[in-house]
Design goal:
CATH superfamily of the largest domain: D-amino Acid Aminotransferase, subunit A, domain 2
Strand content: 25-35%
Number of domains: 2
Bound molecules: pyridoxal-5'-phosphate
Shape: globular
Largest sheet: 9 strands, mixed
Number of strands: 16
Number of helices: 7
Mean pLDDT: 96
Low-confidence stretches: none
Distance between the termini: 43 Å
Radius of gyration: 19 Å
CATH class of the largest domain: Alpha Beta
Structural class: alpha+beta
């Protein structure tokens, strides 16, 4: 059995200090645990550099702001903490998880005076999906839960509470033998997977849903830029589930998932093709740290 996440070796950055991994604990009476007043990020380091670190840090700070709290560190301090920890952990390629949460000073829905904590953990997380299956295309179920109306939940934040329906949906999909689930939104339009954004290809053009009620992924924005660099037409628009039968290729993208081809979504079939493969390769090239020409 693999080592549980609270028993791994190394250090965690916890409220300004590097502490031993096993000592980075919270009390059971923590507001973030009871009321989901927590926001987090998922970042990846490649070749010793965290890809788009500042964008992730800014989204973390903004996620906290949306939940009504101010993370008590500047973006420069958070970036330095992530980079410092990566160096201490000694990894070149790794996953970086900053999390901010309301502490234990009071217990109840209102928590105006609770401390805002910040911790950062870094570990090695190779492939989000089974590497064997990945390039053949993964199989997705269609989830029962839908991404909520932005008037119902703070959908622009990467808030822990929003992942409740993702875990339920992913577990339900896995129980049926699927790798993940595609979620529709509150209107019934195609939204995203449980931890990644979704793209489609038709007649050489790219189509992806408008992120008006789900996370506008940093990988998503990178892939759009890469596709445009290749001269591909990119259509960001509302996509109806009935349209899935008309797309030839489909893929997921996210920090953890990177670019992952899709073979099935419910009754619909896709063949990972030239455009998907090109974007898989372009993304892997893009995330590598840029070396100075003189080096
Ligand atoms: C629900 C959800 N959507 C989309 C994404 C992709 O976001 P990003 O590319 O910024 O990692 C993630 C990954 O964190 C996610 O959890």
């Amino acid at each position: 059995m693999s080592v549980p996440f609270d028993q791994m070796d190394g250090q965690i950055w916890y409220n300004g200090e590097f502490v031993d991994w096993k000592d980075a604990k919270v009390h059971v009476l923590t507001h973030g645990l009871h009321y989901a007043s927590a926001v987090f990020e998922g970042e990846r380091a490649y070749g010793g550099a965290i890809f788009k670190l500042r964008e992730h840090t800014e989204r973390l700070i903004e996620s906290g702001r949306i939940l009504g709290f101010t993370i008590p560190y500047s973006a420069d301090e958070i970036d330095a903490a992530c980079n410092g920890l990566l160096e201490r952990q000694g990894f070149q390629d790794a996953y970086v998880r900053p999390i901010a949460w309301r502490g234990s000073e009071s217990m109840g829905v209102a928590a105006q005076k609770n401390r805002i904590n910040l911790a950062i953990a870094i570990w090695q997380w190779p492939s989000y999906f089974d590497p064997e299956q990945r390039m053949k295309g993964i199989r997705l179920d269609i989830a029962e839960y839908r991404r909520p109306d932005p008037r119902t939940a703070p959908s622009r934040s990467k808030a822990a509470g929003l992942y409740m329906i993702c875990t339920i949906s992913k577990h339900a999909a896995e129980a049926k033998g699927y790798a993940d689930a595609l979620m529709l939104d509150w209107r019934g339009q195609v939204a995203e997977a449980t931890g990644a954004n979704v793209f489609f290809v038709k007649d050489g053009a790219i189509h992806t849903p408008t992120p008006d009620c789900f996370l506008d992924g940093i990988t998503r924005r990178t892939v759009i830029e890469l596709a445009k660099r290749r001269g591909l037409e990119v259509n960001v628009r509302a996509i109806q589930p009935e349209e899935l039968s008309g797309f030839t290729e489909a893929f997921l993208c996210g920090t953890a998932a990177e670019v992952t081809p899709i073979a099935e979504i419910g009754p619909y079939r896709f063949t990972p093709g030239e455009i998907t493969r090109m974007l898989v390769d372009d993304y892997m090239a893009e995330v590598q740290p840029k070396r100075m020409a003189a080096e």
